[in-house]
Amino acid sequence: MKNIILSDIHSNVDALLSVMKEITEKEGKIDRLLIAGDIVGYGASPNECCDIVRYLIYGRKKVALENIYKIVAQLYFTSEQQKNLLNAVMSLEKKGITICGNHDREAGGEPSLTTEMNPIAMTAVEWTKGVLTKENIKFLKSLSLRMKFSKEEFEIVHSTPSYPQGYEYVRNASVLKYTSLWSKVTFGGHTHRPSAYIYTKEIRTVNASVLFPADNYDMRLMLIEKQSTNKAESFDIDSNRDWKYYINVGSVGQPRDGNPQACYVVFDSASKHLDFRRVPYNAEAASKKIRDAKLPNELAERVLKGV
């Protein structure tokens, strides 16, 4: 099956719709669109993002198509571009599956018992709580922490599979161990920085092979691990039964790897091929919405700089 996997939309409807459009124009027929949490938080369009995601999951029986049209019509696109955006969302109807992230939990009134948000993030959460509709709060509270696809040997989780409610940041390869991964392939988000690591049962001098580095620590590992000296934005999952993969798909709405373009991953669970993608969008519009909502200015700057 052909899966699109994305994460950390963070109330950025401009980025989300640009990704929807890119998927329908560039990826051909897909079977599922999987979201690894944090639909809301930081950005200024939480209801719009929740409505779109609910439409992707449940279709027009629960979210009227008129609602999606109203969201698209609010944007800066021409009428022809708005029509294309609407068609893009409609083409993905009922293909969505999502789990929750820490911002979704907080906005739904169920704060994490193990981690605390920084003041800027909490300010955004409190603002989000004040504007979310009752229906969208109920939706966020209904989401699970993990989703496993056993027959295809992969799962999605916001942070780590062994302790998903802890929302641990997997900022580099050393954070995880082979025994903490429960599936052949685990897809996550949370750090907003795309990365890809291979873990093995072998006793080795380093924790993992790095295919796609998230920071300088990972770059150093790439020099040690001879099989992974090049940054691989496209690769096949090896059939070796003793290898496990952790893939961070990055962020749609607030990337933090120095590139402000939205992220997503394409994964064919039959051929075991995986591709990282980036999508340009109107970050200036998303930034202006954050400022207009009187959210912290740092959040408006982050979407422009990708940090």
Automatic annotation (TrEMBL):
Cross-referenced CDD domains: MPP_superfamily (cd00838)
Superkingdom classification of source: Bacteria
Organism of this sequence: Candidatus Brocadia sinica JPN1
Lineage: Bacteria, Pseudomonadati, Planctomycetota, Candidatus Brocadiia, Candidatus Brocadiales
Name this polypeptide is given: Phosphoesterase
Positions of transmembrane segments: none
Gene3D superfamilies the UniProt entry points to: 3.60.21.10
SUPFAM superfamilies: Metallo-dependent phosphatases
InterPro entries: Ap4A_hydrolase, Calcineurin-like_PHP, Metallo-depent_PP-like, Pesterase_MJ0912
Domain Calcineurin-like phosphoesterase per the UniProt entry, residue ranges: 4-194
